[in-house]
Amino acid sequence: MSDWLKKDRASEEEECPDDTGIDERDIEQADGEVVAVLLKDADLVRQSIQLSEESLLTSKLHQALADGMEKGRKRSARQRGKRMSLQLSAAVLAMLFVLTAFVRISPGFAAIVKDIPGFAGFVELVSYDGSLQSAIDNEYIQVVGKSDERNGYTFTVNGVIADAQRVVLLYTAEGPGISEEDTPSLSYELKNENGGNVVASIGSAHYFREKDNKDSVVQDYLDIMMAPGEPVPHEIQFKLELGSEWLEVQVPIDHSRFDEMTEVIDLNQTIEVEGQRIEIKKAVITPLQVSITFKSASGNEKRLNDFIDLELVDERGRSYQTKSGMGDLDTEIVRHFQSSYFQKPETLTLKAKGLLMSDRGMKVVIDTEQGKLLEAPDGRLKLGEARQSGEAIDLSFELSQADDPQTVMRDILLFGFNGVVRDAEGTAYSITRGTSYGTNGTTVSRFGAGDRHRVTYYYNIPNEEYVQPLTIEIEQYLGHAFKEIAIPIK
């Protein structure tokens, strides 16, 4: 067990007869209690432990699952969603996705749960991220346990999971009116030790969980992906709004626990797909992610949007998926993959099946007075509506992705951030992404109810006396090219 965890258990070790500081009976009891609460359907659990099999605790894990299954009630899995909050410029494209998974319990993890007050509720949260689960299984966590209380509200930062690129803050919010159902999003502020903004993309794992008491308590985590070149702060000032109160906790980040745990691999290899060139610059392996930097050639004729089925694969065929990135593949992007750090693979290969790319210079021509689409790249894009709404004109476009090679729907950009619409005389007006009601400039795209391959986009333009028709340049569109890509990383 790590020395830093042993320090936190000094008082307990004095009372324990064995060298580990933990009585085997305590471990068995803790395992039974946690498993009874959290285990899912047995068959599905076995499918979820692909990467955990490399853990030194695998044999004990299987035994704990078997022993606890009779006590645990079966509950069906359900997909979870993540809310996103970005603190980078609009040019940064960061997407976080959640895949259905199941909780896995190890004896070491059960002991950690027992020692950290209020930590049991985070078991299910971190189980949906393979990197975080692997970190927890390997006791890679910093205990914080600091709180702020005010007028009946309590804000506690329970722990931190951090490396040189990523910081995960585990926290608990308590107080009147605080619940998972009524509080889907809590406002927060983050500052570094110098009082400056934390330059990163920040996601939350909040979702509704089945629990007996849904009132007064919310447990969640903030997932902070530092922007390229931005160092992890030594201290984060974490402020959270509960009710009308702003509560604050100073969260220390101990860099000594990960300073020697970063591996940088210079690659400088170029791949080419139908004449489009991309340089793979470097890979950075840390306990919480593998980051790979891609830079597209400036002379590429096509607009490069994404890879097809991008993944890392080790010598045993284990796949490490990518669910987020910072930047734009058409220029330069850093993609983040599930970490292989604790699995210690002998080889790691970057694989893809091709590229998603589209022609440059495409456009849409519409007549907002008649509500007609006059020109589009092809029949897959249709005008849903064009209607006046106060000082704006709300536009909706429907895009069919039925022939897209991806297995999941993609919310492609379509029109660029800070895009413009031009009337027949060339006068430019701003176009913003809007809601289905055309109100606040945020993005809301939905899948068509009758066609699972259709996505609807909403935009707003000023309600002006336009000289018709109007032209909008397309930033991203459908299109792809297949080619098997395999680049050795290590």
UniProtKB/TrEMBL annotation:
DUF5643 domain: residues covered: 262-367
Composition bias, Acidic residues: 11-21
InterPro entries linked: DUF4179, DUF5643
Region (Disordered): 1-25
Record's compositionally biased regions (Basic and acidic residues): 1-10
Record domain DUF4179: where: 85-174
UniProt keyword Protein biosynthesis present: no
Pfam families: DUF4179, DUF5643
Residue intervals passing through the bilayer: 84-103
Top-rank taxon: Bacteria
Keyword annotations of the record: Membrane, Transmembrane, Transmembrane helix
Protein's recorded name: DUF4179 domain-containing protein
Organism listed in the record: Paenibacillus agaridevorans
